[in-house]
Amino acid sequence: MALSIGKVYELEKELDSVFSGLFGANWEEVNKAAVMKCDKATLTNLVLSAVRVLGKSKETMQSAAACYEAFAEEVMLHQNSVIQLQDELLKSKSEQMEAVQTTVKSEIRSFSDVVKKGCEDRITATQVKAAVKSAVKDDDRRRAVMVFGLEESANEAVQEKVKDVLKVSCSTARLLVKDCHRIGAVRTGYVRPVKATFHSNETAALALKCGKNLRGTRFSGVYISPDRTREEREERKGLVSQLQEKIRNDPGQYHYISNGTVCSRERRPTPSPRTPASTPSPPLSTSIPPSSPRTSLNPASATNPRPASRRMGLTE
Fold first, then answer.
1. Which residues pair with 143 in a beta bridge?
2. pTM of the full predicted structure?
3. Long-range contact set of residues 267-274: C-beta below 8 Å, sequence gap at least 24
């Protein structure tokens, strides 16, 4: 018997009808005096009806117990999922704190080296704050990427557009985006880049790695690059200029940027296309083709013509 609110109401109505039919009152209003007035047949009907109602009540309670157990198991599953998500969140927070601590230690170590070298300038609290601020900015940049070439429109949902790009580039992984916004002022004919921030450095690195998968898709004009500082952007701009110059001066080689350096190597040979299987040539015809009206016949051949087989090159 499946438990439902309707069945509980039906059971309550049946119980009320039994008592109202026998005593003309609600079961809560039945007392000892009312029962003593009943004859044997009435009491028999009351007992039978009570037994039937109690049997249905038992089935209802069993169904309720089963539903409660299923509900309790479902609650436990949800609790386990919540605990797992909390563990992942704590792990991510711990990794971020470790990254910040590492960067702060590096900055403080650099200040310590300056002091050891005999620098007369005293390290102030302002310099320490600046070092911590720089470390936090570096950590924020490691958790973000820049998306260039993403079509811009009025009242757009930038985060949904970035999610569509990531679904195409990283179809095998689900990358959770924390925040998205355009960089720069609105200008006519200019598409502003999008800064996309993730919850961890690893997610941002995966988004950068999968950016090459956008080639040949509907987002082939979209590019994903790291969130660089102004100095890094200037350095990258210089490397791109060197790369373009090398491509113009030496187009025979393959040029690329690796680890902050323009590198060159021999191009890999393109594989030759497969040669189609040769088909057997059709049999030569032994019939003499009609002579062209412009071709003059040799008198000797006219008086003593060769056999057709010799003229067609079919002699043994």
1. none
2. 0.44
3. none
